[in-house]
Design goal:
four-stranded antiparallel β-sheet, 2 domains, globular, mainly beta, 40% strand, Lipocalin
Length: 188
């Protein structure tokens, strides 16, 4: 990778290359690189518009990459898109709330569900949806438990299972919640 980094994110693009972006190395990073598994080489690409670590990064249904939130000097609400066909990062609309250590899941309808995380004051129970077609963020029902460093999975039935994580003061959760049609329901 040519330089050290932790707390970064990586995604496999539709062309098979791996995008690595952000993270930490004596400060939050805005740098990004592409790994080509066919040639086993790394290429430095355009930097992101913001430095960030503890962010999320994932592939949208159109093949673009959405990066959300993270942390620099405070929790970020900024988001940006990477277009693999042009190699350019562009800023898109900001989330309603700054958050780091959150999850993001691409739903079957192409929208993105961002859940929980941590802001400058503690764990969050909020969730919001991003519509890539309109670039609009909409708040949705809150979680029953505020949480960060949790996991979220899109199930085969389209629901999103949110598990574990931490609350404030490093209290680890054993609860799980199920997201279904803009509603959060306690399941475990």
């Amino acid at each position: 990778m040519n330089n050290s980094r932790s707390r970064h994110k990586a995604s496999v693009l539709t062309n098979g290359k791996v995008l690595v972006a952000g993270g930490w190395s004596n400060g939050a990073l805005d740098s990004a690189k592409l790994y080509d598994p066919l040639t086993e080489t790394w290429t430095i690409i355009d930097t992101m518009n913001n430095t960030r670590d503890f962010h999320t990064m994932f592939i949208l249904t159109d093949g673009k990459v959405l990066v959300t939130g993270g942390y620099t000097d405070s929790a970020l609400n900024s988001t940006e898109l990477y277009d693999p066909s042009t190699g350019i990062w562009t800023t898109t609309s900001s989330m309603n709330q700054g958050r780091s250590d959150h999850t993001a899941s691409v739903l079957a309808n192409g929208k993105v569900l961002v859940i929980g995380g941590n802001n400058n004051h503690g764990a969050l129970n909020s969730a919001e949806l991003y519509d890539p077609l309109t670039e609009i963020w909409t708040t949705t029902d809150n979680l029953n438990d505020a949480r960060y460093d949790h996991a979220a999975f899109v199930l085969t039935n389209g629901k999103v299972l949110v598990t574990g994580g931490d609350m404030d003061h490093d209290e680890t959760l054993n609860s799980a919640e199920l997201y279904q049609s803009f509603h959060i329901k306690l399941t475990l």
